[in-house]
Design a protein that fits this description.
18% strand; alpha+beta; two-stranded antiparallel sheet; 2 domains; elongated
Length: 356
């Protein structure tokens, strides 16, 4: 057969032979345009059909498309074969022979584990507050709506609930059981126990994990750690609260850190304030972590609202108190000058080894 496609079979066989020699996906990607793309011999033959009469061009086109289909099918088979080989190689590289592990000797470089940075920070904070005369208390991470909200002067549909985007648990009636959004429910448990046992006054801190539907960023995590403090006694004033916060920040961060209280609102305290320290990343000059303000909010505080005391059966005319709460993760971030809090949860060995 003469004409533009007289060597078509030889061209196809040559292309199929080239496909068989390809040894990697990367090589296949690099050579595919020359095998079946615009730079291929088949593309050149396609251009040569323009001078044929319509019937001959139609027959030649059909032959050429069938030849192209053979080459593309061979390329597809080659890609699947190479992908399977690469997958097998990776699986073999990751294979763990437990028999080898059991019978092998322990390497000299094996080291014991150590508490994570957040756990270590929590222990350090507990030591600071115990030295100040506080006791450490714990509470459940799953709470009823009453303990997490209502007993803290946040009734259903109260707009303040928007401050704590909440994870609800599928137990009981809808939206009655939550992953606690703060450790404040433990304060309610403590006050109830003190009323029942007659063990007032209370001087306690409550560390633990909390959950909010926050979008993770440089200063926030959806699952985070918080420590709260509660004092209920006779004659407690806002000056006592300010003194505790000042003593804590200087004991933990050092005497050169600056602190400030700014008026704020919390449903369970009145008056309320947020307490801030100078950003330990930029030392007050302004950076991405502190939103270029020079200050980092550690948490909130205030005098206990009488409604909270009354909810647990404490007479607000006889007793008063204050509460405060701040993030353990935030303290670790500032103490160790970590620009992005998400590093605490990424399990990067290079990061973790800095705190061994």
């Amino acid at each position: 057969m003469t004409g533009p496609l007289e060597n078509l079979d030889a061209v196809v066989n040559g292309l199929l032979g080239e496909v068989d020699t390809i040894a990697s996906i990367e090589e296949l990607d690099a050579r595919e345009p020359a095998l079946a793309g615009r730079r291929s011999p088949l593309a050149a033959l396609q251009k040569s059909l323009g001078g044929l009469d319509p019937d001959a061009r139609r027959d030649a086109g059909a032959r050429l498309q069938a030849a192209r289909a053979r080459v593309e099918a061979a390329i597809g088979d080659c890609r699947r074969r190479l992908a399977a080989a690469e997958r097998d190689r990776l699986l073999e590289a990751d294979r763990l022979d437990l028999g080898d592990v059991v019978t092998s000797t322990v390497p000299d470089t094996l080291r014991a584990g150590h508490p994570g940075l957040v756990a270590r920070t929590q222990a350090e904070l507990e030591d600071v507050f115990v030295a100040m005369g506080f006791r450490v208390a714990e509470g459940p991470e799953v709470e009823s709506d009453w303990y997490n909200f209502e007993a803290l002067n946040i009734p259903p549909a109260h707009p303040a609930r928007g401050m704590w985007d909440t994870f609800y648990v599928d137990l009981g009636e809808p939206e009655t059981v939550v992953l606690r959004t703060h450790t404040s429910p433990t304060q309610v448990h403590l006050m109830e126990t003190a009323v029942r046992d007659g063990s007032l006054p209370i001087h306690s801190v409550m560390p633990g994990r909390c959950y909010r539907r926050d979008t993770p960023d440089a200063r926030h995590l959806a699952a985070f750690h918080q420590v709260e403090g509660l004092v209920v006694d006779r004659g407690i004033t806002f000056a006592d609260l300010a003194g505790v916060i000042e003593t804590f920040t200087r004991a933990y961060f050092g005497t050169d850190v600056e602190t400030r209280l700014r008026p704020s609102y919390f449903p369970f305290t009145e008056p309320s304030a947020e307490f801030e320290i100078t950003c330990q990343i930029c030392h007050g000059t302004g950076c991405r972590t502190c939103s270029h303000t020079g200050w980092i909010e550690l948490g909130g505080c205030g005098m206990l609202d009488p409604a909270v005391l009354e909810a647990v059966g404490i007479d607000p005319d006889e007793w008063s108190g204050f509460a405060f709460g701040f993030g353990i993760d935030r303290c670790a971030q500032m103490r160790h000058e970590i620009a992005d809090m998400r590093a605490l949860t990424e399990n990067d060995a290079r990061f973790l080894e800095q705190f061994s």
